[in-house]
Specification:
The chain is mostly helical. The protein contains 14 helices and no strands. The protein is globular and about 65 Å long.
């Protein structure tokens, strides 16, 4: 069901809109968590290290899919808020055409270069073959990743966050069952993990695309919308390219950090792989709420209701901080037991690495969540330069500090310490840029 985000109490609207998004991203992350959990439990520590090592490279591909998601979502939201439905439909088809071409290029490049990337990040020989196998299968499933992201971006732009949630919930639960069947039952190892994800993502993509086209047909227009528009393509790229660059450079930064981690051996790699999955579950959840803020602010920006944007910011900040409290406490107090879900018989080194990662990062969830809410509004209102400055500040600080501190007596623990520094500096910049927006010059009463 389409939902207009430009009317009603902002806090109530955002809770109703963002909570299904929050649930969706939890199920989305279950894909990766299930892969690591099953690999670590049933195929051993080296298999867990291989999946975690490959994951950092898959994030590059996901970055491009995420950029297309955000570009499509923001443009469609703006047209939907302005009630320009013909342009909105053209924005959808234009986004799909551009995303399909980009996906094809990435598949060719990925299949040719993933082995070189694994060598570049100093992948240990004992996990190299499994890492390469996982990546090869994953790359063949990239069309599912891209078009699923486009479809969820469209649903969100139309104010519907519940439909993607139902698809993801079913798909993720199926993925867990297939992971266990392929790896524990059929003894397919890392290949079983990859094929389970491939099949379930494919089913989820097909269903979501079917319902997107059905939803769009229900929105009547006076004339048939053109399939492609150069001007709309330019608007799409204006949002999609910076969002893609943001995620891509973060992924590249993570790969550089992964190369430093790989130098400490499979034990630290396995601990990091388990710990970072738990951390990414939280960060991606906050990012998804930030994406919801982008849809909310884009609709209101298109409808010229700037007074609602600041009210939405306060509601979004309240939302993420309420979520931060139990998650930070859970990771600090129960981190050891959570890590055991991923590692059947972990070495002392693997367990220590995972625990330290969670204990250092989780108290700063309040900081990074505030940044992501502000980023959502900056992105939704087209302030991409400011958004990029804050993001790259975080990236550069984290990568440089990680490489420097890894060579000190802190060892791998020094790498974990780089995260809070980058988060804090970037949060300051994002909030400062937000504070200079035109919405603060309007009455914020909803």
């Amino acid at each position: 069901m389409n939902k207009n985000l430009t009317t009603g109490n902002p806090e109530t609207i955002l809770w109703k809109f963002c909570m299904p998004l929050f649930g969706s991203i939890i199920f989305q992350q279950l894909y990766n968590i299930a892969d690591s959990l099953v690999a670590g439990k049933f195929a051993g520590e080296n298999a867990l290290a291989a999946v975690g090592n490959s994951y950092e490279i898959t994030l590059i591909f996901i970055a491009f899919a995420f950029g297309c998601n955000i570009g499509c979502s923001v443009i469609v939201s703006t047209f939907f808020g302005a009630k320009k439905y013909n342009e909105m439909k053209t924005a959808v088809s234009t986004s799909m055409i551009v995303s399909g071409l980009l996906c094809a290029i990435l598949m060719i490049g990925g299949l040719l270069l993933c082995g070189s990337l694994l060598e570049l990040i100093r992948t240990p020989q004992e996990v190299f073959a499994d890492s390469r196998l996982y990546l090869d299968i994953y790359i063949w499933g990239l069309p599912f990743v891209f078009f699923y992201n486009i479809s969820t971006g469209i649903f969100s732009a139309l104010g519907d966050s519940k439909t993607p949630f139902f698809f993801l919930a079913a798909s993720s639960c199926s993925n867990i069952a297939m992971d266990i069947w392929f790896v524990a039952g059929l003894h397919m190892g890392v290949a079983g993990v990859a094929w389970a994800t491939f099949i379930c993502q494919g089913a989820s993509c097909a269903l979501s695309m079917f319902f997107v086209f059905r939803r769009l047909r229900s929105i009547r227009t006076d004339e048939k919308a053109p399939l492609f528009s150069r001007s709309i393509c330019g608007k799409f790229l204006k949002v999609a390219v910076p969002s893609t660059l943001q995620q891509s450079f973060i992924s590249i930064g993570n790969i550089i950090i992964q190369s430093a981690i790989n130098g400490f051996g499979p034990g630290v790699m396995a601990g990091y792989s388990a710990g970072i999955k738990l951390n990414n579950l939280v960060i991606t959840s906050f990012s998804t709420i930030g994406n919801g803020m982008s849809n909310y602010s884009a609709q209101n920006y298109g409808a010229e209701k700037l007074d609602r944007i600041h009210a939405g910011f306060k509601a979004g900040l309240k939302m993420v901080w309420i979520i931060s409290v139990p998650l930070a406490l859970l990771y600090v107090v129960c981190g050891r037991w959570l890590l055991l879900f991923f590692m059947g018989d972990p070495s002392a080194e693997a367990m220590h690495s995972g625990i330290m990662l969670l204990r250092i990062l989780s108290p700063f969830y309040f900081v990074i969540s505030a940044k992501l809410v502000a980023d959502g509004i900056l992105r939704g209102t087209g302030r991409m330069v400011q958004f990029m400055i804050a993001t790259f500040t975080d990236l550069v600080l984290r990568v440089v500090l990680a490489l420097v501190l890894a060579r000190t007596s802190l060892g791998s623990t020094g790498i974990w310490c780089a995260w809070p520094v980058g988060w804090a500096a970037a949060a300051f910049l994002s909030l400062w840029f937000y504070s200079r927006g035109p919405w603060l010059r309007h009455d914020t009463n909803a």
